[in-house]
Amino acid sequence: MLDLGTSFVASVARDPDALALVDGDLRLTYRQWYARISNVVAALNRAGLKPGDHLVSILQNRWEAATLHWASQFAGIVITPINWRAKADELDFCLEDSEARGVVFEEVSQAAVAGSKLAGGLLCIAVGTETPEGAHSFSAMTEGDAPEAEPRVGADAWSIMLYTSGTTSKPKGVPRRHRAERAAGIAHVAQNLYRQGEVTLGVMPLYHTMGVRSLIAMSVIGGAFVCLPRYDTKKALASIAAEKVTNLYLVPTLYHDLVHDPVFAQTDVSSVRKLGFAGAAMTDGLLKKLDAAFHPELFVNHYGSSEIYTFTIDQKAIRKPGSAGRAGINQMIRVVKLDARTPDDVAAPGEEGEIIALLAGDEAFEGYWRRPEADAKSLRDGWYFTGDTGMIDADGDLFVTGRMDDMIITGGENVFPAEIESALSLHPAVSEVAVVGLPDEKWGKVVTAFIKKSAPVTAEELDQHCRTSGLANFKRPRRFVFVQDIPKSPVGKLLRRFLVSGDYVAEPESQPRRQGAA
User: Fold this and answer.
1) Model-level pTM?
2) What's the CATH number where 496 sits?
3) What's the rounded Cα separation, in Å, for the pair 509 and 512?
4) Residue 419 sits in which domain range?
5) Is residue 448 part of a domain?
6) Sheet arrangement for strand 123-126
7) Distance between alpha carbon 33 and the CA centroid of its chain, in Å?
8) What domain count does the chain have?
9) Rounded to whole angstroms, how far apart are CA atoms 321 and 316?
10) Is residue 471 assigned to a domain?
11) pLDDT tens digit sequence for 310-343
């Protein structure tokens, strides 16, 4: 397997004059981009960074972030990107945990760096027009006439360390090698049927596995990565039309915002022929709306994680809504019993259990960064226990039903939110929905649906919809709460814990509506 630096050099040799990178008015071919990357590699070397050093970046999806990513691959530096919204204490945690040698920031993240206790003692690189005292200018690092960069490490070297979201504990570092990253990029090309010269919208953050995969995949096929520094629906639509974007790879929340924006109807999106989504389940209602809006040649549900990029793929997502399909080309999966001790405690077809994935796959990580307790919990007998729940149907297709932590035990029955959310999403007055379990004296937890409306609707009407939808009686929500917005993370993941803790804004004069048990 090639290291990523050599892989990029091969791409330059194949497609030197192909469009590689777009950011506003900036347009670079592979040859031009390689020259800038080479300048940054030389500058990082002059700054004293060595192969194996961690470099934390706290950047939006701008051309500088993409350039830094590739320069790090050539230099053998472990790029360690984090959310550009991170606060000073969150930045300090990552700097200390990774033993970073430097940090790269921009105006939007400068306050976090200024408030950091550790950043002042590290190499600081500023992206943008203003360079604070003591920091290096990234712009200056891209200038000059350095020799073409040559890869300094092999395929077994560390490439990147992503941090998990840390929804229930401190974030965990997920280090990944060059060979695993490139294998994931090639799998992404194959499983999405990308062709030479594809154009993708680079909006998923480069601190997230989906964003990194889009970046690598485009390089493999001489494709173009169109930067969108932060998600804005109207700017996304303008970029799709102007750059003739051919494929989209987004989380469901961003698709929802895209097709529900009034500008969508006036935008030419005919160039988009392939849709892919990951990061969360997509409701049946949104699947149907996207299929009608884009008429895609390919509609891929990609189920994976930062730890192992691909678990399963369904290339015909609309065919069987909710299905995550079958194992990807580099993977094997199983569903084991919820209390499984070993990978051999396999659940029966149709039985809900925990999803596990083989660690021998080419895309897999090898363990968390200095977190033996996390390894002990998740890595067993050569398998990765994902913490996700699901079941395999009679056809052999996987259905992901939620997280182990999201499971609602109500009256002794196990209930998972995804099925209920999909059923409610098909009601025409439901814009978005999230289901959680709230404490209840009688039932232990009571199934509660939080609804963002697109039209007037009552709890009684939604309850009747659930009754006729095929949901088992014990799965029906007993409470409905109408809210102004459903809380989500910066990459569009549903934050159920906010709903459980009451951290949401209810609609005016809206109170939880409780339904009868019948």
Assistant:
1) 0.84
2) 3.30.300.30
3) 10
4) 409-514
5) yes
6) 136-137, 123-126, 102-105, 54-58, 78-81, 158-163, 173-177
7) 26
8) 1
9) 9
10) yes
11) 999 999 999 998 899 999 999 999 999 988 989 9
